[in-house]
Task: structure prediction
Amino acid sequence: MKTYINPNAEQWNELAKRKTVATADLNETVKAVFNDIQKNGIKAVKKYTNYFDGVSIENFAVTPSEIENAVTQIPSNLKNAIQVAADNISKFHSSQKEIPTKIETTSGVFCWRESRAIDTIGIYIPGGTAPLFSTVLMLAIPAKLAGCKNIILCSPPDKNGNINPAILYAAKLTGVTQMYKVGGIQAIAALTFGTDEIPKVSKIFGPGNQYVTAAKQYAQQLGLAIDMPAGPSELLVIADETCDPEFVASDLLSQAEHGGDSQVILVTNSQEIVAKVSVAIENQKAILPREATVEKALENSRALIFEDIKTAIEFSNFYAPEHLILAIDDAEDKINLIENAGSIFIGNYSCESAGDYASGTNHTLPTNGYAKNYSGVSLDSFVKKITIQKLTSQGIQNLGPTIEIMAAAEQLDAHKNAVSIRLKKIQNG
Result:
């Protein structure tokens, strides 16, 4: 990690840059795959699965026997851990249910809002070197709580044409309705258009590599909803003299191991902390099986030293991290200063891994600076909000003249007449 001491505001843009990927060729590939699948359906999906994943799949749907076989492969301690995480995620997301409240804005005029679940959603679950079965919990549980009728899961097959057993187990546990052995651009395209085998969905959720991310963004251009724009995972830690350098190092490494394009940032008010964390990183990474991945991520990571924590927080708000750890004195008293972050972790014992797995909050979060204007996935992500109003006879009489004046001023006489005709009817008995 390269260290910067008191970088001025003019340098912040450069220091906040994420690793970029050339997109021109990538976008052309995405477009070509989408066009082929829109035209040729499941035949094209099979072709690209063979080409990109190196496996021939005849039937993409996961069978009941495959699911049951997966269940038998999961050790009991992992099943118990998944259940604990599922319970916590369910508790937290259940608390987000909105109770409709009727507001009488004018005497006789009532307004309220109700939620309706998105009927059919797709969840994409990466399955490569790190099969993210935890993401199944993060997406399927709130979808089920929201009332989504159809939860369609896609996850790339391994070289034997199978989905990781833990992913299938989590899907069964959380009530996923259909599961398909397909990944990459072809999975997103299939969910966008629908095929003879894989149904069309109304919104797509879930993380993925640069190909999946580009495919989701292209699907959005075609009118499909997605959870949020996303990029490689990232973490920013703000630390002062009260931090534990070994804890900080472990958190930075935990995020760096997601992929070589991940980014971790240490922001502090002390050169001594940077030195201690750097030593701890060297000691800890040496025993990690994904050391090569970590090394690559650290090349694109950095440590920033400011004169005070206030400036550190200002930089964090500018950077807008996906994950933010506050390993500082009186951390909870300072969260009101945080304006941009996907998820905040307070104090030395709040490791980012807790949010990734089992504390209850959602780990599907905005990256690449999108925390400035996007929220992480929540129960609201799986519903539409419908506003409702009811005007009584007294209500239209009270509000009607206001509507008539405004409609007339906009020269929309039919709008005005919709009120006037009612008022005349009331006046004439």
Notes: The chain has a mean pLDDT of 96.
